[in-house]
């Protein structure tokens, strides 16, 4: 396994976490084409808990192979998942590490889950991780103007 990678599968998708609740990504920020919904099995590391496989419906651009996750939706799903089993980790820092093969994730749901070391054989890291930059539209004074990237 190459240094700096988590999973043993080759990196597959690009990833973007959208921290803005008022922005919904119906178009890909990279290519401006329409996105569609697709379910992914995400590997997430939660501080104070460890790794967790979570099935999440995300925005997806098939042209750019980019998974876009809305942070508010992900945190709500994490809170729901941990509300019964470990309420003390709700609100802890987390990091989305990559994707897991759906077959392996479904086995875990049925109680036939693998140990973490065996599960990492079925994990693909992200090729790229992008940050979303957003500046809400408004009127600017003539000498100010919007910030250019």
How would you characterize the overall build of this protein?
The N and C termini lie far apart (36 Å). The protein has a seven-stranded mixed β-sheet. It is built from three helices and seven strands. It has one domain. The protein is α/β, with parallel strands linked by helices and 149 residues long. The model has no long low-confidence stretch (mean pLDDT 88).
Topology:
Blueprint: E1 14-18, E2 36-46, E3 50-61, E4 66-70, H1 71-85, E5 94-100, H2 102-109, H3 116-119, E6 123-125, E7 128-131
Keywords:
149 residues, alpha/beta
Short description:
This protein is α/β, with parallel strands linked by helices. The protein has 3 helices and 7 strands. The chain has one domain (14-19, 31-131).
Number of strands: 7
Number of continuous helical runs: 3
**C-alpha Rg (nearest Å):** 17 Å
**Any idea how many domains?**
1
Structural class: alpha/beta
Order of helices and strands: EEEEHEHHEE
Poorly predicted regions are: none
Largest sheet properties: 7 strands, mixed
Average pLDDT over all residues: 88
State the strand order across the main sheet: 6-5-2-3-4-1-7
The first-to-last residue Cα distance is: 36 Å
- The portion of residues forming beta strands comes to 25-35%
Helix content: 10-25%
Shape: globular
């Amino acid at each position: 396994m190459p240094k700096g990678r988590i999973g043993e599968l080759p990196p597959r998708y690009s990833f973007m976490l959208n921290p803005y609740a008022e922005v919904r990504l119906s178009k890909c920020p990279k290519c401006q084409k329409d996105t569609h919904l697709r379910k992914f099995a995400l590997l997430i590391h939660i501080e104070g808990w460890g790794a967790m496989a979570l099935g999440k419906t995300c925005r997806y651009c098939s042209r750019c192979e980019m998974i876009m996750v809305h942070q508010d939706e992900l945190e709500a799903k994490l809170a729901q998942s941990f509300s019964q089993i470990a309420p003390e980790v709700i609100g802890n820092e987390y990091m989305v590490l990559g994707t897991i093969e759906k077959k392996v994730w479904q086995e875990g749901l049925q109680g036939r889950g693998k140990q973490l070391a065996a599960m990492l054989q079925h994990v693909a890291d992200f090729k790229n991780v992008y940050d979303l930059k957003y500046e809400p539209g408004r009127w600017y004074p003539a000498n100010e103007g919007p910030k250019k990237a």
